[in-house]
Amino acid sequence: MTRLFLLWILTISCLPIKAQEIPNDTLIVGYTTAPPFIIQKNNRLEGINMWLWRRVAKDLDLKYKLMPMNFSDMLDSLSNGSIDVSINPLTITGERSKRMEFTHSFYASNATIAIAEQSSFEEIVQFVKGFFNTNVLKGFLLLLGIILLFGLLGWYFEKRENPEHFRGGAKGIWDGLWWSAVTLTTVGYGDKAPKTGFGKLAALVLMFTGLLFISGLTAGIASSLTIDQLNNNAEGFSEFKERAVGSVKNTGTEQFLRTQFFKNIKAYPNVSAGLTDLRDKKIEAFAYDEPILKYRIQQDSSLKDLAILPIKFDIQFYAFGITKAKPELEQTISQRILEIMETEGWQIVLSEYGLKEF
User: Fold this and answer.
1) What single-letter DSSP state applies at residue 76?
2) In whole angstroms, what is the distance from residue 227 CA to residue 72 CA?
3) Among candidates 41, 88, 35, which has minimal Cα distance to 66?
4) Where is the signal peptide (predicted)?
């Protein structure tokens, strides 16, 4: 009797556990938010991938349970078979193909770079800083040296025979400096002019020197400002190799940046964290999938000062990930994805989220 009672207690205690178990025919589907492909709105999931997966699951009569995960854990779980499917827009890569199966690609895109736009005040500060370039400062010092040299020569040659224009003492030295500056810059007020032969010779040398030197100095300043502006508004992919660039951890974009010898890469758990640091100037650029970056920046008003550069690199093909243990599932889902992509409904969904075929 006691044994029967204990057996009954043990059976009852196990019932709740069994009730919570997931049936063997139910797929465990991992995901992490990635707008516009997977969008979390309150307690509802929306987006391109959610629409596609629900359509596939309905058409194939698949039972499934959605499981939210962070990106890295999702990939690891798919590799070890803890989940059956990942419905995120996974980039098909050779390395990942060793760990998981991929369905037929349903969308092609590319990576791009987002930067923080400079405010008007920052642009003015940057412009002013351009004048404090070492080469520009050297040019101004040389300019002052020429003015001083010829000003003293002019005053020395003219102070006796031309006291009306070049007075004696400290005032005369100032007269010489004034005349030298006006002549060098080709302003030519005519309020002071040399009369002696040596004075006129000095003026002649100064005028020709002024033409050459001022032209060179102007070109140097313009070049310095242009180079400085380019360095702070880089539009080339290689311009960012020495800068602090962020991307999402364990993604195709991060791997691509490393293979391209980017030296200062900061990996983030998700796009939001990276764009927030970019907005706060903790990094200089953020590289990731173009449609995801564009959608995130458009939807988040706090990121309005971020801009997408016209840079396209690392073409990517998106697909669902399937565990290696179920290759037949990959074939079935791939076939249905191909059929859905041929329908008008697929084009409407892409258009709804501002995307089009690559």
Assistant:
1) H
2) 40
3) 88
4) 1-19
> Percent of the chain having pLDDT more than 90?
52
Banded model confidence at residue 13, pLDDT cuts 50, 70, 90: very low
Which pair of tokens denotes residue 237?
């992919």
Distance CA 340, CA 345 (A): 8
Q: How many CB atoms lie within 10 A of CB 328?
A: 9
Average pLDDT, the chain: 84
Instruction: Identify residue 14 by its one-letter amino acid code.
Output: C
How many angstroms separate the CA atoms of 171 and 336, rounded? Answer: 94
3-state secondary structure of 155: helix
Q: What CA–CA distance (Å, rounded) separates 135 from 127?
A: 15
- Kindly report, residue by residue over 112-168, the tens digit of the pLDDT: 999 998 655 555 655 556 556 677 777 778 878 888 888 888 888 888 888 887 888
* Same-domain pairing of 21 and 89: yes
Count of structural domains, the chain: 2
| CB burial readout 50-87, b (16+ within 10 A) else e | bbbbebbbeeeebebeebebebeebbebbbeeebbbbb
Stated pTM of the model: 0.62
Say which CATH number the domain at 211 has.
Answer: 1.10.287.70
Tell me: do 96 and 132 sit in the same domain.
no
Could you give the dihedral angle defined by the CA atoms of residues 106, 107, 111 and 112, in that order, rounded to the nearest 10 degrees?
Answer: -150
Do 105 and 136 lie in one domain? The reply is no
